[in-house]
Amino acid sequence: MRILVTGGAGFIGSAVVRYLIQHTSHSVLNLDALTYAGNLDSLTSIECDSRYQFQQVDIRNLSALSQCFDKFQPQAVMHLAAESHVDRSIDGPSAFIETNITGTYNLLDTARAYWQGLETEHAVQFRFHHISTDEVYGSLGTEGKFTEETPYAPNSPYSASKAASDHLVRAWHHTYGLPTIMTNCSNNYGPFQFPEKLIPLMIIKALRGECLPVYGDGSNVRDWLYVEDHARALYQVLTEGRVGETYNIGGDEERTNLEVVKTICGILDKELPGNEGQYDRLIEFVADRPGHDQRYAIDATKIGTELKWQPKESFESGMNQTILWYLDNREWWQRIESGVYRQERIGLGTSK
Description:
With 352 residues, this protein is an alpha/beta fold. The chain has a domain at 2-191 and 224-253 and 296-314: 3-Layer(aba) Sandwich (Rossmann fold), CATH 3.40.50. The protein is 42% helix and 16% strand. It contains twelve helices and twelve strands.
């Protein structure tokens, strides 16, 4: 197949592109605007492959999208391009509205026009796979998990924008017949993750002997999914999933934020013992994020039953691989830090 991937220079998108090139025979066109979190260094292992090509395109640019469809003639679309950091959405929600909602609309309507022009057999085979988040479901109590039937109740500008994009995808399928598939995933982690997210942020701060800021009392719970397990799941949904369906993808690995940070400290104590004692001495509790959802947990029964997908990595094995990667690839994240990103605290709702 010829697969068009949006956001393929981002964290999850680059994992998908690497998987497609390294584990399938398909061709990939990677469209990415290369905003602050887009990083082509994450694709150096496959950038010279003849089946891979990249174009710097913003999904808010409708004419550029149309040109890419006309030239590449994709047989499938995997839509991952999005603004994705909750704290940034609190400080500056407009970028999330423009990219996640308007950008998704642009992509859907471009795909619809392209799909409607295909010959019947090619139109039947075409797929539009929209990749979303479990945050659209809101917050859970101490019991239960999100299923594909859980009502939407987004609580942040980020999750609200993703919920809106999900609804657009559903509408384009039911109104126009566009053959869409949707996935909602739990929190991803692994190599090449931009260092504003919890796990890489804590790893890098610990390596520098800086305080490890934990929001509130650290009791907020997330279900963690190793990014390469997620990439494998996304490809399986694209090729085997049923049109019009949603599949939840989770690692079944719930941890409080404090447990995550203590896990990082414990692994670093073994791999790179500090001269001044154990790393957990650096943990510091700070003011909580406004509207911080208490708990997310995914019920991945549907994808496991229908498609026989299961995560290969446990939280412990995935975290070991992740931390070793950040230890072995300091140049990758140091180059990021020398640019726009400075690990400043954001998401307190003080910006306009």
